[in-house]
Amino acid sequence: MDNQLQHKTVFITGAGGVLGSTYIRRMLSAGATVVASDLPGHRADALLEAHGENNQFHFFELDVADEDGVISLFQQFKEHNLKPDVFLNNAAITGEMLVGEGGTIPDFANTSVDDWQRTLNTNLTGAFLIARQMDRDIVGQYPCKLINVASMYALNGPHHQIYEGLPFSSFSAYSATKAGIHGLTLWLAGYWAKRNATVNTIAPGAVFNGHSEVFQERVSELIMAGRMAKPDEIADVMLFLCSAQSDYMTGQMVNVDGGFSGW
Ligand SMILES: NC(=O)c1ccc[n+]([C@@H]2O[C@H](COP(=O)([O-])OP(=O)(O)OC[C@H]3O[C@@H](n4cnc5c(N)ncnc54)[C@H](O)[C@@H]3O)[C@@H](O)[C@H]2O)c1
Predict the structure, then answer these.
(1) Which CATH fold would you assign to the domain 9-262?
(2) What is the pTM of this model?
(3) Is the pLDDT of residue 235 over 80?
């Protein structure tokens, strides 16, 4: 829809990943101002190369797990006269990210407290820190929306066998944080309702990002649509959740998973 996000300013964390970069391209085309962020020294270059000339695009470095960094970023919004009214808790430690960094995903018995905690710090505490700063600085000042990003592995368990023999897999902290982030949605939706702020969760399914044929075949059998998602198919629903068309929705989880959770 043309200009679906005109007059909206969207703030997004973990913006340089496969979905974040798709959301940004689509949001800018829909007329939004986009305030993007990602880890220091991480993935900014590609975003700046693609959108750096666009005066509706802004980029800040942010580790969402850094409490002081989150507080200071909201201060910078004021200094730059940026007034985000849609906030996307999109940053996450994902299996693809761990393997892409040259790491491995330890099996459950060998998962250290540090491994577990690192995922919690980003995927869940990071979302809390953004929401808390919204509460302090923005909620009640003007209408706003928070969109938390979960996963098809939030409220449904993985079929572990589809990862057998492959270099990546699902991991326990990921599922725990993705279920937890919807708990945050439910808690905040009622808490902010009278202050003109909505809170929803989007739960994307399996998004194709160069996965092997074997994985594509195995996962596709579990999906009613019979295939993985294209990033733009998740973005279609994300744009709707950012737009005025979803103003009457709050406290919901929207599954965009080709029917994975619908059997
Ligand atoms: N791609 C999928 O199949 C899929 C499916 C379901 C849910 N999701 C969710 O969608 C969101 C985006 O996924 P994606 O596929 O683009 O992942 P991705 O791994 O491509 O990108 C994740 C981004 O988060 C950033 N990040 C990691 N730790 C961070 C931190 N501490 N502070 C700030 N940024 C940090 C990374 O730098 C990266 O740019 C995630 O929340 C993910 O869990 C993705």
Answers:
(1) Rossmann fold (3.40.50)
(2) 0.98
(3) yes
